[in-house]
Structures are given as structure tokens and as C-alpha cells.
Amino acid sequence: MEVVKGKAKLFTVIVLLYNNAQFITECLDSILIQKYPNIEIVVVDDGSKRFNQESIQNYIEEHKKSNVSRILVYQNDCNFGTVKSANGAIRKSTGQYLKLIAADDALYDWNTL
Prior knowledge:
Layout: E1 3-4, E2 7-8, E3 11-17, H1 24-32, E4 39-45, H2 53-63, E5 68-75, H3 82-92, E6 97-102
Parallel strand pairs: 3-4, 3-6, 4-5
Antiparallel strand pairs: 1-2
Helix pairs in contact: 1-2
């Protein structure tokens, strides 16, 4: 693991969401249990009609550990599609490492990060 000024480099996990919010807690839980010491979580909804940004933000805040250093949850104005939505999230992320994951997927190898 590379370290920057006494701290591990930031690892960004981008969660891509579109009309599948019913699965996001399992996805987030699989990220939140990771042991990597410096994680950024970016959740982007690609214009779903039913998206509760505050609920997702609160869920992460309530379940995160000290290794989650930054959280960003936002919604696109309209449905841009997976690639454009992912590229927008990448531009908003600040990590040196990056992982894209769909909201209906989960990390099952707890040592992935």
C-alpha cells in the first residue's frame, strides 16, 4: 500500500445508480466493511424518478467507519447513460485509485480494497 504524507492514498469507489435504489444498501455495506484505511464513496444517480439523496447520504454517515474520509452523493439532471454518468463521477472524485460498481452489485472479497 502506498502512503502519502503518513496516510494511505485515497481509494475512490463510485457507485452508479439508475432505477435500482432498492439494492444500494447491500452495495454500500460491502464497501463500508472494507479495511482499506482511506476510502472516498461517490454515489451518482443517473436521473431516476425516485431517488432519495438524503436517505443514502444518511445511511452512509450512520454506517461508516473512520476509514471513510469523503462522501459525495448526487443526482444527474437527466439520464445521461452509464458512460457519461461514470465520467462525471470520475471528474468529481479525488482519489488516486478508482473502482466503479453498480448499485445492484457488491464486493464479496472483503480484502479487495
